[in-house]
# Entry
Amino acid sequence: MKTIIQAEKDSGVSAKLIRGVIKQLGGMDSAKESMQDIINHGIDGGFHGFIYYTDTIAFFKKFRSEIRELVCDQAEEFGVSPIDFVAGFNCLKYEDDIEGKKEIRRALFGKMISDDCLVPNALAWYAGEEVSRLFFD
# Structure
């Protein structure tokens, strides 16, 4: 498994987000056990710290700027807007959903409202999956 510093250097993902995902997964030992399964099966299968909205939304809020930066960087690589990038997530499928895109915009760039839970949850999962890929791809 790569070190956090090497993963940050290789990917450009902030060490703060990498450490946050590892902590959310229960620490380094637990993360090592979970990350390969996350890559193979997706984080929505139920992994420590990424199961309940209370956990995922709090994680998203804490690492919002780092997640936004990751989204914007990857969206640029794919040649799409950050909103369209997130709208295409399998767990959301908001490509043609105007209200869904508004929630994405609020989550990434605006002031979230109390009902916003699907997008912050999806973005927390996204961060967990992307960090897991850094260590095992």
Q: What stands out?
A: Residues 4-136 form one domain. Residues 89 and 133 are 16 Å apart (CA to CA).
